[in-house]
Amino acid sequence: MILNNIFNILKKIWTKIPKSLRRKEVPDYQEYETDEIPKKLFKIKKTGKKEKKLEEEATFDRDYQISKQEPKINSYQVPPLSLLSDSYAEEKTDTKLNIEENVKTLERTFTNFGINAKVVGVIQGPTVTRYEIHPAPGVKISKITNLSNDIALSFAVASVRIEAPIPGKNAVGIEVPNRKRINVYLKEILQSSEFKNGKYKLPIALGIDIGGKPIIADLNELPHLLIAGATGSGKSVCINNIILSIIYKLSPKTVKFIMIDPKRVELNIYNGIPHLLIPIITDISQAIKVLNWVISEMEKRFKIFAEAGVRNVNGYNEYVRNINNDTEPLPYIIIVIDELADLMLSSPVKAEESLCRLAQMTRATGIHLIIATQRPSVDIITGSIKVNFPSRIAFAVSTQVDSRTILDLNGAEKLLGNGDMLFSPVGASKPIRAQGAFVVEKEIRNVVSYLMKNCPTPEYEQEVLEYKKSKNMLRETEEEEEDELFNDAVSIIINTKQASISILQRKLRIGYTRAARLIDVMEKKE
Q1: Which GO terms describe its molecular function (predicted)?
Q2: Three-class SS string for 35-90?
Q3: Could you tell me if 395 and 228 are in contact, meaning their C-beta atoms sit under 8 angstroms apart?
Q4: Following CA atoms 72, 196, 69, 183 in sequence, which dihedral angle do they give, to the nearest 10 degrees?
């Protein structure tokens, strides 16, 4: 009785309070993960042990939504995955019936050429379907590999790729293009458990392999990456995937980018993000200076490690955290060069020397290189660069020669373009075929805008900025040591009336670097 009276009194008081002053019910955003925010939110009204979900359209401020959900890393507000395009389920066009027909076509082709082999397995990927072939005893694998063009003809496709044998299996893989591709979105990989829970120092999301498994590599283990492919093959999109992967995982205090973009159109979109060590570099002469600064930074870090008694950047940062003083941990430095060809054609000697020295020695110091080119020729990807960049990604190229220049083996000429790649990490016996993730400019602008709005202004390294303005380059003396073959080289050019590096290489039997240096010295003495 008393409780009923109290309830009636409170009810009368509540009805007299103006609606504008009443407390509004707010959806509880924290019960959803970042990638699970529904388009319609539900207000939950508790009635004892049961909960009723009353559907109501939620119109809420995006900033409020983000602040309630996104994790923070050392005060760094991680961009929300909602800034990226949603992936959606796409029906596989190659149905079970089509695959059965393809199996019959493949076995019939083998029979026509007198090869006893059976299809023992089928794996359907986003771009290609791999048919696993088991040859009968006594059948040479070379007989199957030599039929690549005939198999492509039987399927009415441009080309097929044959992997003989499949690593870890006693079977040969024949990869046939799907009738329709299934798009792979970057968001799909970033929200996967492999990316979220993987113990990577520098995780980079690349794509999805034939079996549907996300391809996520650790740049700290690679430790440098060479990317090459023809125009439109997916090279630049791959670079964007790598950069966004780092941004979504690590704070600006943990990693810094140096971006070199001679074409001025690919990486300029990232200008202003807090992860930049310095503004985007577009001038080639400044790029060489900055590479030389990185060499000096590398040497400085080695001295710091020696004084601290540690072996690498991870050991030093752990040492700094343990001594509990004001010393800041050293950030990783990732150098991204979008078009290597511009550097190699403008300053072949200086560029090659700087890149090779960095690639040889910077792994322990936390400095990593990612270089890309659409001209996979031997004058751009020289022997020295290939040796020092054991981890490589090849996109579609036009010839077997280009494929061998990148990967030291054939296969990239059989790729289909638009993100179809061969990823060869350091230590791998054979490359992994994968479909690269897809990200568009609008998504990148969304992430960049969010970072510029919600993160502090970039703190550029003043030492590098001052060094960019300096007239003299580090490690460059005014009088270069004259090569003992200089006079012979001059005589050859005068007699042949052709001042080319290739002639000096052929006549003097020297390497590209030395011949290019001789040409440079001649130009200076003109």
Answers
A1: ATP binding; DNA binding
A2: HHCCCCCEEEEEECCEEEEEECCCCCCHHHHHHHHCCEECCEECCCHHHCCCCCCC
A3: yes
A4: 130
Rounded Cα distance between 144 and 429, Å, is: 21
Ordered by where they begin, the domains of the chain are 25-69 (no CATH), 96-177 (3.30.980.40), 200-469 (3.40.50.300), 486-524 (1.10.10.10)
Q: How far apart are CA 422 and CA 373, in angstroms?
A: 15
Say which DSSP state 124 is in.
E
What backbone phi and psi angles, to 5 degrees, belong to 482?
-80, 135
**Read out DSSP for 235-255?**
HHHHHHHHHHHHHTT--TTTE
For 4, 489, 493, 494, 503, the CA distances from 497, given in Å and listed in that order, are 110, 12, 5, 5, 11
Spatial contact of 456 and 261, defined as CB atoms under 8 Å apart: no
Q: What is the pLDDT of residues 356-390, one digit of tens each?
A: 999 999 989 999 999 999 989 888 999 899 999 99
d(CA 358, CA 372): 16
Strands 367-373 vs 255-260: parallel, antiparallel or unpaired? unpaired
DSSP secondary structure string for all residues of 380-400: TS-HHHHHH--EEEE---SSH
Q: What does pTM read for this prediction?
A: 0.76
pLDDT value at position 68?
39
What count of other Cβ atoms lies within 10 Å of the Cβ of residue 172? 20
Q: Cα(202)–Cα(246) distance, rounded to whole angstroms?
A: 7
SS3 state at 122: strand
Which ranges in 207-326 belong to alpha helices (H)?
Answer: 235-247, 284-308, 313-323
The 10s digit of each residue's pLDDT in 192-212 is 999 999 899 999 999 999 988
Q: In this structure, what DSSP letter does residue 25 have?
A: P
- pLDDT tens per residue, range 322-360: 887 778 899 999 999 999 999 998 888 889 999 999 999
Instruction: Output the pLDDT for position 355.
Output: 95
Give all strands (DSSP E) within 82-184, no chain letters.
117-124, 128-135, 161-163, 172-177
| Cβ(251)–Cβ(416) below 8 Å | no
